[in-house]
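From the thread on structure requests for the teaching lab: each student submitted one protein with a one-line request. Submission from student K.M.:

"Model GH16 domain-containing protein from Rhizocola hellebori, tokens only."
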Amino acid sequence: MRKLALALALILLIPTPAYADPVGGTGWTLAFNDDFNGTAVDTAKWNFRTDVKGFSAQRPENVTVSGGLMSINLKQESFGGKSFTGGGLISKQGLRYGYYETRAKLNDGVGWHTSFWAMAGDGSTTFGPERRTEIDGFEIDSKSSPTALNTIHSGVHAWNGATDVHNVGTTYNSGLDLRQWHTYGFEWSETSVKFYVDGVLKHTAAYTPTQWTHDHINIWLTSIGYGTSPDPAFLPTSVQFDYIKFWQKDYYVDNDGPGAYGYSETGTWFDSTLTGWTVNSPTRYAQCHSAGHTATWRPNLAQAGNYQVFVHKIVHSGSDTNARYDIAGTTTYVNGTAGTTGWVSLGTHALAAGTASSVKLTSSGSGCARADAVKFVRV
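Reply posted by the TA:
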């Protein structure tokens, strides 16, 4: 009986595994993760949150890794002109569409704002000039009453500098004790963000690239003193994270920014004033009325499979009327002066893993060939 009781106790102490595929479907690949199984923060993957905001200053020393968990230690101490300190981690890698998931356990005591969220930045400030998209997987304000610690906020912001130009989300009573372990996830696709708790869809927020800029975002796991001054009676304490995972299925290759890792040109190309598939994204055009200039988009596919491939066509009176696109031995001609601006299918193709596959645009000399983005959608 004693051995059985010990075994049960150990089982209760071990965090349960992640939901393998709460969003359904096939073709998902784990593209970024940290199980926090080491003895220190993996600084090849993470920056520390170091800003001073609200009621706390954030310190790298407050973030520890031990026993398969990452802990953000919350303290009453004088630092950076504040009486309390928090902290957090920000992924160095910028990510875009896919499914993001973590497992977290919140603290008791008022005054701490804990978040699993994503936005471009390095942790030194939350007002960086590079931010555009902000996705809040969860924002939770701690409470001194355990029965009150059940409110979750999830949502999406679009930033134009310091101006919040788009703010959609939901705040709700989860009915859960958030001091216990729960799994939180969000799936970001081209048209929306879906928010999950313990594998259950809780909210869907529309978020389209024709209205708002969809940039690459860094993952933030943080806790700061915010809203109400923290209660020293509950300090020191900690917020804990079991893991962070990001699964990817579709691949977008742009002509600029982090998404341009597989983009190349030959011949003569120029920057265009015409915007691309997501607001404010630049495009390129080849020397007009001149044939043979090429642009190539080469994804790095984690899995072999069938992908429907799309090129973003920019309709303009001066565009190439007979631009040639080649992929996997198939040729498609696209008239850039007809129809509407948007994604044009180049068909579904069986593509190998890695960088062997590509879409190649060749200008015909009839107008100006235009290069923006190509997407590979797993089917």
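TA comment: Confidence is low (pLDDT under 50) at residues 1-20. Helices lie at 2-13.
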